[in-house]
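ok trying this again, last paste got cut off
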Amino acid sequence: VLEGAGFAVRVLAAGESVRRAAEDMRAALIMMDASAGGADVRRALEELSSADAPSTTPVVMIGGADVLRDFDGPGAAVAKPPRKRDLLESARALITAGPRPWSERRKRPS
């Protein structure tokens, strides 16, 4: 879906550092599937929101509004199964907004 819309896509292997890959690629966006492994997804978000140097790369979480809500960073959640239009709209909106530190995002109420 994303490649067909002109986005360059890289799929990471399990355990690969999301933050390091995003920085190496100068990623404009990270898209994650919340069901890909709960602990791995949470670890990746914790890595991105590190207090030492939080990432500015926004995250689209597929099927994970509850997971994304716990982290203080730029992002959006898309329901599962994702609709092509929802993925593209979320991706474009976050990229257009530009990078911003995770600490600038307000936490959503539980």
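PB: full thing came through this time. The chain is about 35% helix and 10% strand.
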